[in-house]
């Protein structure tokens, strides 16, 4: 289960699966896209190649990369017939446990015994999915983000039965195709969705309690703390602000809203030790040990650059209001997390 992957496959050609397959193909790795039948697989490959050409026209993709996608994206016939020589297989069928179980059982029966099998699940525990896999030691999760061709992060989730070599190969493979993989623990919803869904749950409460409208919640989110999150994670932000400041905020909020805003031993122990973040030279993250002036300069450069980027995107602000000629339509299945 080691070495460079020279041929991959994606089972499930929907919005996420198709994007994953196109990304792999665009990195120069032959990738077989397998859908419910050969005709559907062929149609999806055609759609993805058309999307690539459209992206070239819009400046989102180099023409050379679109050619690489066309050279390496292959329409599969079936799970049973199309996995020969494949070293890495990603299951990307809809988030239905029974469907994933049946698909993974078929995939693991047809795949080479040394092929690594991964599920692109958003929330389902990998240990549960592993129950249907022949050779669960080679199975893990790889949670790509939507849109899969553009967002770099991928969560790599081994179960307690996954061998280290499979995790290492999965990590190397995702780097090989241009992603930024992070290995995490196997818990429901993993890290990305647990965080973003916690935010969404709190946003729902704000609306249901009459505090704000959805539009106001979105406006505040994207124009304040959301501005930071592409460059700095929540712990880095806390280290910049001051862990004692965050501790005081949580005390007020937990008093008003209950235990969902309670502090934890991690924060309490750091504050008690005088490790307050950037202002003390020690905190939770390595950022706290850097020169505060340098951190401030880099942060400010990022904010100015982000503002200029957002201002340059034509039509972005138009999305904040309903078009005058709006006609209800059914959107594509592009809602995977």
UniProtKB/TrEMBL annotation:
GO terms for molecular function: 3-hydroxybutyryl-CoA dehydrogenase activity; NAD+ binding. The keyword Oxidoreductase applies. Its EC number is 1.1.1.157. Keywords: NAD, Oxidoreductase. It comes from the Bacteria. One of its GO terms (biological process) is fatty acid beta-oxidation. NAD(+) binds at residues 12-17, 35, 95, 100, 122, 146, 279. Pfam families: 3HCDH (PF00725), 3HCDH_N (PF02737). Pathway: Lipid metabolism; butanoate metabolism. It is an enzyme of class 1 (oxidoreductase). The keyword Acyltransferase does not apply. Residues 190-284 form the 3-hydroxyacyl-CoA dehydrogenase C-terminal domain. The record marks 143 as: Important for catalytic activity. Residues 8-186 form the 3-hydroxyacyl-CoA dehydrogenase NAD binding domain. Belongs to the 3-hydroxyacyl-CoA dehydrogenase family. This is 3-hydroxybutyryl-CoA dehydrogenase.
């Amino acid at each position: 289960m080691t070495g460079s992957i020279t041929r991959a496959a994606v089972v499930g050609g929907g919005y996420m699966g198709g994007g994953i397959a196109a990304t792999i193909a665009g990195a120069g790795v032959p990738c077989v896209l397998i859908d419910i039948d050969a005709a559907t697989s062929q149609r999806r490959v055609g759609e993805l190649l058309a999307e690539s050409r459209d992206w070239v026209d819009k400046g989102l993709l180099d023409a050379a990369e679109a050619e690489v996608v066309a050279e390496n994206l292959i329409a599969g016939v079936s799970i049973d017939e199309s996995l020969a020589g494949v070293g890495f297989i990603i299951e990307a069928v809809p988030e239905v446990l029974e469907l994933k179980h049946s698909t993974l059982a078929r995939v693991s029966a047809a795949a080479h015994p040394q092929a690594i099998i991964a599920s692109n699940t958003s929330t389902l525990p990998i240990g549960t999915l592993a129950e249907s896999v022949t050779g669960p030691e080679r199975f893990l999760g790889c949670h790509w983000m939507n849109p899969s061709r553009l967002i770099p992060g991928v969560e790599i989730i081994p179960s307690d039965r996954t061998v280290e070599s499979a995790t290492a190969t999965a990590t190397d493979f995702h780097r090989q195709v241009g992603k930024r993989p992070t290995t995490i623990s196997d818990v429901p919803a993993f890290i990305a969705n647990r965080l973003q869904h916690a935010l969404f749950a709190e946003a729902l409460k704000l609306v249901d309690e009459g505090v704000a409208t959805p539009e106001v919640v979105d406006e505040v989110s994207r124009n304040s703390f959301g501005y930071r999150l592409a460059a700095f994670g929540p712990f880095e932000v806390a280290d910049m602000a001051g862990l004692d400041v965050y501790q005081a905020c949580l005390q007020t909020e937990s008093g008003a809203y209950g235990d969902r805003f309670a502090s934890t031993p991690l924060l309490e122990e750091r504050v008690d030790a005088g490790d307050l973040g950037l202002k003390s030279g020690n905190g939770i993250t390595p950022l706290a040990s850097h020169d505060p002036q340098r951190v401030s300069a880099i942060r400010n450069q990022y904010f100015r650059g982000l503002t200029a980027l957002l201002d340059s995107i034509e039509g972005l602000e138009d999305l904040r209001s309903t078009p005058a000629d709006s006609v209800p339509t059914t959107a594509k299945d592009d809602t995977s997390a």
